[in-house]
Amino acid sequence: MTMKPISIVTGGAGFIGSHMVDLLRDQGHRVRVIDDFTGGHEKNLAHRKDDPDLEVARKSILDVAPDDPLFEGVKWVFHFAGIGDIVPSIQAPAEYMNVNVQGTVRILEAARHAGVEKMVYAASSSGFGLAETPTPEDHVIQPQYPYALSKNLGEQACMHWHKVYGLPVNSIRIFNAYGPRVRTTGAYGAVFGVFLKQKLESKPFTVVGDGSQTRDFIFVTDVARAFLAAADTPLSGESWNIGAGKPESINRLVELLGGPVVYIPKRPGEPDCTWADIRKISRDLNWAPTVSFEDGVKIMLDSIEHWRDAPLWDPESIRDATKEWFEYLS
Ligand code: UDP
User: Fold this and answer.
1) Which residue in 124, 138, 207, 249 is a FRET match for 72, CA 20 to 30 A apart?
2) pTM for this one?
3) 13: Cβ below 6 Å to ligand 1?
4) Contacts of 138 (CB under 8 A, 6+ apart)
5) End-to-end CA distance of the chain, in Å?
6) Ligand 1: does its nearest atom lie under 6 Å from the Cβ of 177?
7) What ligand 1 atom has the least distance to the C-alpha of 313?
8) Please, what are the domains in the chain?
9) How far is the CA of 271 from the centre of ligand 1 (A)?
């Protein structure tokens, strides 16, 4: 009898991590999730409650030891755990460095000691700052706020472990991922969560600026497929950008969702356009997006009840929540 391969997903109770768990289970992997349930949520894994091949370790990545037994016999490690969002990172930069940089180092050390076959790091496109578009992998790195810096330093640590210790590690810089289970609580941000709750409550969509700004939205299951390919390739020490390679405007999103709008001020340091150059990932990993924006938005609308308990934002609460954003970013 052949043994099932074992994978670790840190942040497996989170948005993208939980989709990674689903894909790995479909591929016949046993999965160990490491999640402290600060950002992650039980309901993201509720559909796998009785799955005997899923083990959930409720702990922080900061508590992972170099010889952690969780890493025994592990083939692949997918590292999604971390903290996100702009404003809280401006308020608590040391916390972001601790979790996103030192936490990543803990995972690298455990992966190194266990001799895993591959680790894949969930990196962020935010490190590119206000970038040229379409943005290739070798674009200059220019983080605009502590979250972006911390994710970039985590990525640099991965590449350092590859160089110094020969750890097989790759990283994927995610542009605007969306899909079912996209975060519903916590800080203001992630436009889908904001708009879907507004739609549920028949409140106007809070459109930033004139809504003509564009984002390279990529559906979450396409992201998970890329991470699988990044583990399964003989390549290592590589970084790839991932988006749909096709920016969509906020006005287009509003049109697909349908509903009234209210306009709110443009935020400092926000790019007018994000757009991943996906030629490298397409070539190296034979990856291409499969879910169109129209289909993706339809899937979101079909699962809109998921956002029932999400916070409802309006222009006033957004103004209060983004005070530091306007103060510190330019
Ligand atoms: N956005 C918006 N209204 C909101 C929140 C976001 O129009 O209430 C827009 C925002 O201007 C940006 C896009 O949605 O162009 C994506 O914003 P998000 O915060 O999700 O991601 P990021 O800005 O990091 O790309």
Assistant:
1) 124
2) 0.97
3) no
4) none
5) 60
6) no
7) 8
8) 6-177+217-242 (3.40.50.720), 182-215+246-273+291-324 (3.90.25.10)
9) 10
